Amino acid sequence: MSDIVTHNAAQNAANADAAAQSAASAGGSVGPALGRRSIVLVGMMGAGKSSVGRRLAARLGVPFVDADIEIEKAAGMTITEIFATHGEPYFRAGEARVIARLLESGPQVLATGGGAFMNADTRSTIRLKGISVWLRATLEVLSRRIKRRSDRPLLTNADPVETLRRLMDERHPVYAEADLTVESRDVPHEAIVEEIIEGLRARLQAAPPAEGAQP
User: Fold this and answer.
1) pLDDT tens digits, residue range 38-51?
2) Three-state secondary structure call for residue 72
3) What is the distance between the alpha carbons of residues 207 and 195, in angstroms, rounded to a whole number?
């Protein structure tokens, strides 16, 4: 079950200056403790995994990798084209293979597609080689964000918001198996990054790297 990182908007605002001053040292304390483990961001499309992930990786001094981009590179076509040409099962099988390969190359921040964590083998590999972080967002936040994008194959239908609601109902119980849960909401990305780092620091202090996880 996830460790849920709570937040308080007023407190976050009041402590913004102090957080900024401690940013470098906070990120630096987490990075070395990862060993070869990856930080794996999971959650629905529109949760901010890529935008938050890039900033998190910069703070920690590790590479950022977007699994969807790596899948497109491996396939030589876009995800939309993969869905249209080969169907979702074909895409999911390739997605699992690519993520398993990427997890051999930690430490890194790895952003995964919305359905990736639903694969039981992928979840097992992430537990072994990474720390998973669920970026949890409300339907209101997600539906507002996805309206800006046209590259979501599962939402190309007459009622994308209802499809999104159904996917959330299916996926949230599985996402809840992630090691950490952080609320993705309409605040500066750095606030989300700070909450992830706080949760990671506590998690790493409580659970040292598994055998074989260190270089």
Assistant:
1) 999 999 988 999 99
2) helix
3) 18
According to DSSP, the β-strands at 180-183 and 109-111 are: unpaired
Compute the residue count for the chain.
215
Q: What is the pLDDT of residues 72-104, one digit of tens each?
A: 999 999 998 999 999 999 999 999 999 999 999
Q: Which residue segments constitute the domains of the chain, with CATH numbers given?
A: 3-8+32-206 (3.40.50.300)
Helix (H) or strand (E) holding 109: strand 109-111
Backbone angles phi, psi at 72, to 5 degrees: -60, -40
Surface-to-core class of residue 45, CB atoms within 10 Å of its CB (0-12 exposed, 13-18 middle, 19+ buried): buried
Where do we find the tokens 């483990």? 37
Q: What amino acid is encoded at 112 in this protein?
A: T
Q: Which residues have a Cβ under 8 Å from the Cβ of 200 and sit 6 or more positions away?
A: 30, 39, 131, 133, 180
pLDDT tens per residue across span 11-63: 444 433 443 344 444 455 787 888 999 999 999 988 999 999 999 999 999 99
